[in-house]
Amino acid sequence: GGPAQKAGLQTGDRLLSLDAESIKGASLEVLERLVLSRAVGDTVAIEVSRGEPAAPLLSKLTLTLERRLP
Question: Using an 8 Å Cβ cutoff, are 44 and 18 in contact?
């Protein structure tokens, strides 16, 4: 699996913050800019919400960027 899977991300997880910067409701373009501003090997802290919206499970995960996509 890739870095996201290794960090524990699962399908359906909702991303809330990236390095303590809120990304809740951010557009794809904003997320792309935030990710591409990191270098390969950088570690980022992400906060996700998992499960039913009424009772979210918040997890703090660490993701290390292994390579850039072409």
Answer: yes
